[in-house]
Amino acid sequence: MKDPKMLEKKERLLQLVRSFCQEYLDEEYEQLSMKMVEKLGRKRTVPFMSGKLEVWAAGIIHAIGTVNFLFDKSFQPYATVHDICAHFGVAQSTTSQKSKLLRDMFKMDYFNNEFATQRSQQSNPFNNLVSINGFIVPTELFKNK
């Protein structure tokens, strides 16, 4: 049986990430953020049961944004760390620490598909590489000419 207090906090956290995504980002970021909240809620010890939910929400957006180049002006959508921190009323250092904790917890890295946007997945430079007998080889070598 689910703890009602946990369900209440999870719903509040979902509302927080949804509101940021709807104001600054897009539906894809919203779906990825909600996916992370759901995964956190399934942990044996639910991490967001302690600490401020605003810090967790900021950390979630920051973690997903970090691996999807959210802070790079040449990508869309684009937001700054300041946008995230100002929206949730949290400190940048606290947000960065929570983001790092989440990226470590879920083994998130650039081009990791679980929390990657479609654009990140499509622009992954490793998509065109294969391993043959331990050697990394571009797939172009195998295309018919």
UniProtKB/TrEMBL annotation:
Task: Give residue ranges for domain DUF6398.
Answer: 13-116
Q: Which InterPro entries match?
A: DUF6398
Query: What's the superkingdom here?
Result: Bacteria
Q: This protein is called what?
A: DUF6398 domain-containing protein
Species of origin: Paenibacillus cisolokensis
